[in-house]
Design a protein that fits this description.
The protein is α+β, with helices and mostly antiparallel strands. The protein is 39% helix and 21% strand. It is globular.
Length: 549
């Protein structure tokens, strides 16, 4: 999909950290990879530093995430967590083909113009005031840390080049002494300071001005919240495809597992990958003959991309199968359904089940179709499964809620600009009176939480499962130059009762213990497995009791 024109109004949506179907790249997952708990605080700090020295940034991030849960108030651990997150961000950027080919190649003037546009948008639209001093300081920090990142150094200081380690240290020292938390009083001053740093970096190390300015573009966004970020052209395109529910690719969500390859976290129903025989939990170890066991997610994703009709040869390993398996996948357009499964579970009590995996443009129509099919079978109650649903479009969430709630507020949003302050209300027409259970878990986020919060506040049904993720903010997507974009938090949302449950989440009415997963992979229920699903069984029990009463 082509990026929106600059004059086009941004699209508001609620989006959990990016599950972007390409394949799909999992960035920083909501739930960190499970790591062994450090024995004590000092050993945790020591291990983290060793991982940083070895520049094993992904491992360092996982380690610090685990350690920070045990010692949340330890500064050394929190600082290590911050450094490793930034370093992983740099790794992702420099593994991104569109960043290298479309952004790093732009002249200094365009890079500085991109910085100016980004700063202006943040100043006018971010949900909270962020000082220019803070934004520029975070850019300086990102540049400082990039000078210890091998991918950055390999790109700009190739082996055999004149600059030495002493000059790298000289530039880092200059950044720390002269620009760390430097006071910035205006956008014009921010522009001058970044230009000045570009000149110094060129003089000391010969760094291209665009590479320096882009650290202020992407790194400056570290001053914002966890859900705001500057998007490379590929990320921006993937996000638009995710919103529209269609893309060209394989239809898999991948996560790099060093030494083991690419773990398939999910495989879309009816996708090229599923058709070819891939399953969640498989490890891809070879792409067109190239060993990918130690590749980053982004490096592997660039190999998996390709035009419509092209073929990719994959080698993979699967539990209980010996040796490397091989197959061929043909890339083609994939339609991502919001509702991959809708079925009648109890024909005697007429209880239906609807699995909703996202909120996109087609969601309301898909729901209408699913309900119509179930109503033809005499449905009286519905289990609405929002587990592992990361969210999506705000309008899609209110549209589907309007099918179940007849009157009152569905959700409200509040931001710094007037157009972000809205109240979404229900309309009686078209509302059904089906008894309802909503299933949630720790990965039900954003738009899923809008639904769960409204169902709970209106006493429209039961929420069963586990506490939701706790992302109660609205992001708007703004197009930027060179086909890049900005995902920016522009408002917070509130339940009908006026609650914002950021970092808290919606508590279920009935808690059900989380199921054990293999390799940390969530396998969505199938028609065949629903009967053994603990959450579904509890929902059936509750609905049967209410229908009998």
């Amino acid at each position: 999909m082509r990026p929106a024109a600059a004059s086009r109004a941004p699209r508001n949506h609620c989006l959990l950290t990016a599950v972007l179907w390409l394949c799909t790249i999992t960035l920083f997952a909501a739930t960190p990879v499970v790591a062994d708990s450090p024995a004590n605080q000092q050993s945790a700090i020591k291990t983290g530093r060793q991982l940083e020295v070895k520049r094993r940034w992904a491992d360092a991030l996982t380690h610090y995430q685990t350690a920070s849960e045990q010692w949340p108030d330890t500064k050394e651990i929190q600082h290590g967590l911050r450094r490793s997150r930034i370093q992983c961000g740099i790794q992702h950027r420099y593994a991104d083909r569109s960043f290298r080919q479309q952004l790093l190649t732009i002249p200094e003037r365009q890079a500085l113009s991109l910085f100016d546009d980004l700063v202006a948008r943040v100043q006018s639209s971010f949900v909270e005031h962020v000082s220019l001093t803070s934004f520029v300081a975070h850019g300086t920090e990102s540049l400082y840390l990039s000078l210890a990142n091998q991918k950055f150094l390999d790109r700009h200081l190739p082996a055999g080049s004149t600059p030495t380690a002493d000059r790298v240290l000289q530039l880092r020292s200059t950044l720390f002494k002269s620009y760390w938390n430097r006071q910035i009083r205006s956008s014009a001053e921010a522009h001058r300071v970044v230009t000045e740093v570009c000149r110094i970096s060129q003089r000391i190390l010969g760094l291209p001005a665009s590479s320096v300015a882009l650290e202020y573009v992407f790194g400056g966004c570290n001053a914002l919240d966890d859900y705001s970020a500057c998007l490379t052209p590929d990320r921006y395109s993937d996000l638009n495809a995710n919103i529209d529910g269609q893309f060209v690719g394989l239809g898999v969500e991948i996560k790099a597992k060093p030494g083991h390859g690419l773990l398939l976290m999910d495989v879309l129903p009816a996708s090229p990958a599923e058709t070819a025989g891939l399953r969640p939990g498989d490890h891809v170890v070879r792409i067109d003959g190239t060993d990918c066991r130690d590749m980053s997610t982004d490096e592997a994703a660039s190999l998996l991309k390709g035009p419509i009709g092209s073929r990719v040869q994959l080698g993979f390993r699967r539990a209980k199968l010996s040796g490397e398996q091989r197959l061929q996948v043909i890339r083609r357009p994939v339609i991502v359904k919001s509702i991959p499964l809708a079925t009648m579970l109890d024909n005697k009590q007429h209880i239906g089940y609807i699995q909703m995996t996202g909120f996109q443009r087609s969601t309301a129509n898909e729901l209408d179709s699913a309900l119509a099919t179930l109503q033809q079978q005499g449905v009286r109650a519905v289990i609405w499964d929002l587990r592992h649903n990361p969210g999506g479009l705000l309008d899609a969430a209110t549209d589907v809620l309007d099918r179940f709630i007849a009157d009152g507020v569905l959700v409200s949003t509040r931001g710094r600009s007037l157009d972000q302050n809205r109240v979404y209300r229900a309309h009686r027409r078209g509302t059904n009176d089906l008894k309802l259970v909503v299933l949630t878990d720790g990965e039900s986020a954003s738009a899923s939480e809008i639904v769960a919060g409204a169902i709970r506040d209106h006493h429209r049904g039961l929420v069963i499962g586990r506490r939701t993720y706790g992302k109660w903010s609205v992001q708007s997507i703004f197009p930027l130059a060179k086909s890049s974009g900005l995902r920016l938090t522009t408002a917070k949302f509130y339940s009908p009762a006026g609650h914002n449950l950021s970092k808290v989440g919606v508590r279920p009415d009935i808690d059900v213990a989380a199921p054990k997963t293999q390799d940390g992979v969530y396998r969505r229920p199938t028609r065949e497995s629903l009967s053994t699903d603990a959450d579904v069984r509890k929902a059936l029990e509750e609905l049967r009791a209410r229908l009998a009463g």
